[in-house]
Specification:
alpha/beta, THDP-binding, 6-stranded parallel beta sheet, 10% strand, pyruvate dehydrogenase (acetyl-transferring) activity, pyruvate, Rossmann fold, Pyruvate dehydrogenase, thiamine pyrophosphate, 12 helices
């Protein structure tokens, strides 16, 4: 059975700079998301949007101060969280949603999936849930083959884990001891289906990794520092050539599956508990203040800076032109 990852974390073991960085990344993710939802409500952005609010700790903790530009991530369909943590500029992400040349696809349309930023190790995604699990074996295998120390992190939900690509991926990663880290973002629901209705597991999704000889654990994904520690250990293992790790991060989404989902299938008291008692940003902020690392004013100052950064990013994206219609066939190879 998968172990629950626990560790006593002393804030004094981290630099103030790192502690502030985790806070900054989580707040940036949340504010990016809230502003994007506002753009949708203003009729400026259309299509589906899968909000990542509530799960900022998983992305900030796993990526920030653990990965370099040359390490790869494969994000999931709530993946603005992961792209922001990996350093993709906010104006480029907004540009993708607004269909502007500023976007990573230079206006050819991306939304949450299909955007890519290869210079920062973000190689894109496909709309088919779980497809990234197969592709991630490719970059992990190439790093091993070329003898580099690059690691690959692949993000997927509990719903994606119930599909067959996970098992093919685990088999190859386990067999070749690939530098691949699985981050299963378990928010309990795949659209409106609860995990208890869809998974044949002993207790945890991470238990499946056991059968492939892959070290695994379950962690509170809403504790940004715990998330950071567990992934740090996995990255070190991967770099030592000891192979993959499977991490099941427990979290919850604050909003429905997509913007417009009434989200009436989750009991109100469950959602209230996650929002009020298990919010990754609120809890981390309280800890930073209670332990005297930062004052409320210092954090509020950073919040204001992030607000300004977001306004500037939206403006940059909106001021950028729409793509020239003649580019419609650009990048089309079939
Ligand atoms: C193969 C496939 N089946 C169904 C869908 C539609 N779909 C999009 S997201 C989703 C649920 C995914 O749930 P999960 O992996 O738990 O992620 P969460 O949305 O909870 O973050 C489904 C069924 C799809 N995109 N691809």
């Amino acid at each position: 059975m998968a172990k629950i990852y626990e560790k006593e974390i002393n804030l004094q073991d981290y630099s103030k700079d790192d502690l502030l960085h985790f806070y900054e990344v989580m707040v940036k993710i949340r504010k990016f998301d809230e502003n994007l939802i506002q753009l949708m409500q203003d009729g400026k952005v259309s299509g589906f949007y899968h909000s990542g609010i509530g799960s900022e700790g998983v992305s900030a903790g796993s990526i920030s101060r653990n990965l370099r530009d040359e390490d790869y991530i494969y994000y999931n369909h709530r993946g603005c969280n992961q792209k922001i943590a990996k350093g993709v500029p906010l104006s480029k992400l907004y540009g993708d949603f607004l269909g502007r040349v500023e976007g990573t696809t230079k206006g050819l349309g991306a939304g949450i999936v299909h955007s890519a930023d290869p210079a920062r190790g973000v190689l894109g995604q496909a709309g088919t849930i779980g497809s990234q699990l197969g592709i991630s074996v490719g970059t992990a295998y190439s790093a091993k083959f070329k003898g580099t120390d690059q690691v690959t992190l692949v993000y997927f939900g509990d719903g994606a884990a119930s599909r067959e690509p996970l098992h093919g991926s685990l088999n190859w990663a386990g067999l070749y001891k690939l530098p691949l880290i699985y981050i299963c973002e378990n928010n309990e629901y795949a659209i409106s289906s609860h995990i208890s209705e869809t998974h044949s597991v002993k207790e945890h999704i991470a238990d499946w990794a056991e059968g492939y000889g892959i070290p695994n654990c379950v962690v509170d994904g809403n504790d940004v520092l715990l998330m950071h520690e567990v992934v740090k250990e996995a990255v070190e293992r991967a770099k030592r050539g000891e192979g993959p790790t499977f991490i099941e991060a427990k979290t919850f989404r604050h909003r429905g599956h997509f913007e417009g989902d009434p989200y009436d299938y989750v009991p109100a008291e469950v959602l209230k508990e996650w929002k009020e008692k298990r919010d990754p940003i609120k809890n981390y902020k309280t800890r930073l203040i209670d332990e005297g690392i930062f004052t409320e004013d210092e954090l509020a100052h950073l919040d204001n800076q992030i607000d300004s950064e977001i306004i500037a990013a939206i403006k940059k994206a909106e001021d950028s032109p729409l793509p020239d219609p003649e580019r419609i066939f650009e990048g089309l190879f079939a």
